[in-house]
Amino acid sequence: MSSFVAQDGVGVRDTLQRLWTPHRMAYIKGENKPEDDREHGCPFCRLVGLSDEDALIVARGRTVYAVLNLYPYNPGHLMVVPYRHVADYTELTADETVELAEFTQHAMTVVRAVSDAHGFNIGMNQGVIAGAGIAAHLHQHLVPRWGGDANFMPVVGQTKVLPQLLGQTRELLAGAW
User: Fold this and answer.
1) Using CA atoms, how far apart are residues 149 and 138, in angstroms rounded to an integer?
2) Beta strands 3-7 and 10-14, pairing class
3) pLDDT tier at 105, thresholds 50, 70, 90
């Protein structure tokens, strides 16, 4: 099915297909992003009071938990988050630092077992200027990668195709955890 594109006020048929991903607009517009990310308004602090299914929490530890990213870059994109509302990596306790590292290692093992990921991007954005969407509560991203996952869709079409609903991904990862 081809589409019409306005050119000088006239509809011109093009050969492009359209894949609509309206759920991404919420992220682009900053919906669900707290105006006040102090502890009482922090989504990471609120998540721990919900059921694992409702919060998309994959696993809970003593000082950290693993949760799926609501706006994933790739299927299985999760974050390791300390329960304590802390902004900077240097503010973690020794126990939190160790468990964050252990959860990250275990998450890699689980994601590989469930989806045969070829590699990972792992990291955290410290501060708004570094790209942290929720800068007041530290969180480490774990993004699974596969050969060819940066194909024409995200590069040219600026669209990411996710083959699975977040709830289904959470069930697979939690079951394998």
Assistant:
1) 27
2) antiparallel
3) very high
Q: Cite the DSSP H helix spans in the chain.
A: 23-28, 43-47, 52-55, 94-115, 152-155, 166-176
Cite the active site residues.
Answer: 139
Q: For residues 143 and 151, which has the higher predicted lDDT (pLDDT)?
A: 143
Domains observed in the chain: 35-176 (3.30.428.10)
Q: Comparing C-alpha atoms, which of 73, 48, 59 is closest to residue 171?
A: 59
Cβ-contact 142, 112 below 8 angstroms: no
pTM of the complete model: 0.72
Q: Does residue 1 have a pLDDT over 50?
A: no
Q: How far apart are the first and last CA of the chain?
A: 43
144 and 69 Cβ atoms separated by less than 8 Å: no
